[in-house]
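Deliverable D4.2, example record:
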Amino acid sequence: MQHALALGGLTDIELRVPALLDPGRAEAEVRAVTEQVVTGLESADVLLRTSRQLITGQSPERSLEIAGSVARDLTAVVTAAVQRAQPRWVIGKGGITSSDTATRGLGLRRAWVLGQMLPGQVPAWGPASAEEISGPLCVIFPGNVGEADSLAEVILRLRAASQCLPA
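Output generated by the structure prediction step:
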């Protein structure tokens, strides 16, 4: 992630997990972060990420509930921001996070694999149905895949490709 931030032109926005887990603050956190993403996309690419402190429950089941709750809130931000700002591409980083980003956040029910952003590991998906065709390109970046600068490389490739597409 640090290599991606070093690219410049990237607004780093944190979705704070402790706030999401507080019933009195969760909704406000989702709204505020959505506004930050929409505003950020007006002038730059946005890196939306969750806070890095791992929060676990007292049991494996509770930890899974926490992860599911955070995923739902993250995809709620993606859904609202994409509808309002209409970015050309979205990268989902992490296995389950990528799936949730594509299916819940972008509403993809089916997609075509358009190719690989990096050899053998990071596919780009495009909508497979006419009603979804106006959505952004979705890059599925599995967790624990690639080198330290792989995310930055994918961002650079997407930026270059975006320059070749009509607005």
